[in-house]
């Protein structure tokens, strides 16, 4: 019994707390609407109800209930004007209206009466109260709404005990109407909250997917570049180890220095292998074939043609000394660009151009609009990365720049500029 009393006390304390703590105070109804007219709509509706109910309430109290004119004006104002406050703070507005309605019923007990029919709420009070229930249901928590509905019922049934003779009771009607309105509007609000949470979750999921894609692409690029760096480190190790044999007249200090260089290179190789094992923690096997370069771009174009995309290649005869990282990045950019053509623009004529000038390697892939349905998307030359994400990461890695975008005729353009030297001259815009 004591536990039941404690639980009952907690419930009523929670109701009291909810009634005195409005949800997100100060934010008007429809405040998040993009249109200014939509944001003003709640104020227009509230003002219209106040303009209609205020004089009607005063006239009704004076004419039908025999209330003094000044007192009727004060009651009418307190019972209707808070509807404007309900747009932004409906719970505070309810407190004002509720107290004014109860005081109004007490005033009616001492009034002279007349042609009045309804008790304890005049019809205008019933209409205003229902409007207030709509504002409350769209803003407050379910616990607060239940407290409002419960307080309305208790006040109505208490005042029913003092109903004068000849009056018709309408407190049950108000209780039913307020309950239905609170239930419907709270359901609308719950649905809107659920939709907003779903949109927020989708936005977070999309951001997480983009982040995961970026990290996967960086890890894949790191695995590929491991072979390039490992080759250079192996060359350094072999040269340092063989230097004393190739150059017999080396002094002892130089021999020790080459030995130290070879040891450092071997240690670096071991560290790189450990790093690679972390990057391949998913259990995937590393590629055993050598990393591709620009010498295999012709094969890419031929595979694309076999996939049904008319493509042509313009590869400069003399590209000069292309660093391995740039060579691999250029190949992958062409591969991803052609794969995107097959996926998103099947049948589109495509032009691939690779040239070197002023210390820059320029890779240009331009395709026209699609000429075939996109159902055969995944057939043909498939890429190995994540499209534009992989291209941007490779260009950023080498210190180059990437320009992509649609063309006026419906095609697409991918232009990458990769440096062939540490400090090349500023690149010219590719044709």
TrEMBL record:
One of the Pfam families matching this protein, by short name: HisKA_3
GO molecular function: kinase activity
Reaction(s) this enzyme catalyzes, per UniProt: ATP + protein L-histidine = ADP + protein N-phospho-L-histidine
EC number assigned by the record: 2.7.13.3
TM stretches of this protein: 40-63, 69-87, 94-112, 118-138, 145-162, 168-188
Location of the Signal transduction histidine kinase subgroup 3 dimerisation and phosphoacceptor domain: 217-282
Listed InterPro entries: HATPase_C_sf, HATPase_dom, Sensor_HK_TwoCompSys, Sig_transdc_His_kin_sub3_dim/P
Keywords noted in UniProt: ATP-binding, Kinase, Membrane, Nucleotide-binding, Phosphoprotein, Transferase, Transmembrane, Transmembrane helix, Two-component regulatory system
Keyword Nucleotide-binding: yes
Domain (Histidine kinase/HSP90-like ATPase): residue spans on this chain: 329-421
Stated name of the protein: histidine kinase
């Amino acid at each position: 019994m004591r536990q039941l009393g404690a639980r009952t006390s907690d419930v009523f304390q929670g109701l009291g707390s909810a009634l005195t703590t409005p949800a997100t105070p100060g934010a008007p109804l429809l405040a998040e609407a993009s249109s200014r007219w939509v944001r003003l709509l709640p104020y227009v509706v509230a003002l219209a109800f106040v303009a209609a109910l205020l004089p009607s309430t005063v006239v009704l109290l004076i004419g039908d209930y025999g209330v003094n004119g000044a007192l009727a004006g004060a009651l009418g104002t307190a019972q209707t004007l808070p509807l404007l406050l309900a747009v932004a703070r409906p719970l505070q507005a309810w407190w004002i209206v509720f107290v004014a309605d109860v005081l109004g019923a007490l005033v009616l007990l001492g009034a002279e009466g007349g042609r009045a029919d309804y008790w304890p709420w005049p019809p205008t009070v019933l209409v205003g109260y229902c409007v207030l229930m709509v504002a409350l249901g769209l803003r407050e928590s379910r616990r607060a709404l239940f407290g409002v509905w419960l307080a309305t019922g208790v006040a109505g049934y208490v005042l029913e005990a003092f109903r004068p003779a000849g009056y018709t009771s309408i407190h049950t009607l108000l209780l039913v109407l307020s309950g239905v309105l609170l239930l419907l509007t709270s359901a609308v609000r719950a649905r809107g909250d659920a939709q907003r949470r779903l949109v927020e979750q989708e936005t977070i999921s999309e951001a997480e997917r983009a982040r995961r894609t970026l990290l996967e692409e960086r890890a894949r690029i790191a695995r590929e570049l491991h072979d390039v760096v490992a080759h250079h480190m192996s060359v350094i190790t072999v040269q340092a180890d063989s230097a004393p044999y190739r150059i017999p007249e080396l002094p002892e200090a130089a021999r020790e220095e080459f030995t130290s260089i070879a040891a450092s290179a071997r240690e670096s190789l071991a560290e790189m292998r450990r790093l690679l094992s972390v990057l391949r923690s998913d259990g995937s096997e590393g590629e055993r074939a050598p990393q591709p370069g620009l010498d295999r771009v012709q094969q890419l174009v031929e595979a694309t043609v076999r996939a049904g995309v008319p493509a042509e290649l313009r590869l400069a005869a003399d590209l000069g000394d292309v660093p391995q990282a740039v060579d691999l990045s250029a190949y992958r950019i062409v591969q991803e660009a052609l794969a995107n053509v097959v996926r998103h623009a099947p049948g589109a004529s495509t032009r691939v151009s690779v040239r070197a000038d002023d210390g820059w390697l320029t890779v240009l892939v331009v395709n026209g609009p699609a000429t075939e349905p996109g159902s055969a998307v995944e057939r043909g030359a498939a890429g190995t990365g994540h499209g534009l994400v992989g291209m941007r990461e490779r260009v950023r890695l080498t210190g180059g720049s990437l320009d992509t975008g649609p063309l006026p005729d419906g095609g697409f353009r991918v232009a990458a500029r990769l440096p062939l030297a540490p400090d090349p001259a500023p690149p010219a815009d590719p044709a």
